[in-house]
From TrEMBL:
The chain crosses the membrane at residues 12-32, 44-67, 73-92. It comes from the Bacteria. The keyword Transport applies. Belongs to the CPA3 antiporters (TC 2.A.63) subunit F family. Residues 95-114 are annotated as: Disordered. This is Multicomponent Na+:H+ antiporter subunit F. It is a multi-pass membrane protein. The keyword Cell membrane applies. It comes from Roseospira goensis.
Amino acid sequence: MTVLETRLDGPLDVAVVLAGVMLLAALCLTVFRLLRGCTLPDRVVALDLISALLVAFLVLFALAVGVTAYMDAAIALALIAFLGTVAFARFAERDRPDGGRPVDDSRNDTGDGP
């Protein structure tokens, strides 16, 4: 059996095909958001979503073909994608105009408080 040759034998097969189509639509919309994102955080979120969708594709493919090695690849991709997201967040934090310092909201500059 090849990837393009699908036989819909039962409800699980139909569900896998429908999930694959929905994941493909979500991936297309996310790539559009990645290319048209206005700011760096928009693009980082789009990249993170693409990695999550690829993990879901790997899980669906493992379910469709019955090879559990793809599940291991999905777990490894999820871990690497998480580390990449953390690295992007630290990079975006460092590039902030205020130098990445947290804002102190407890200070009251209006003079009407304690």
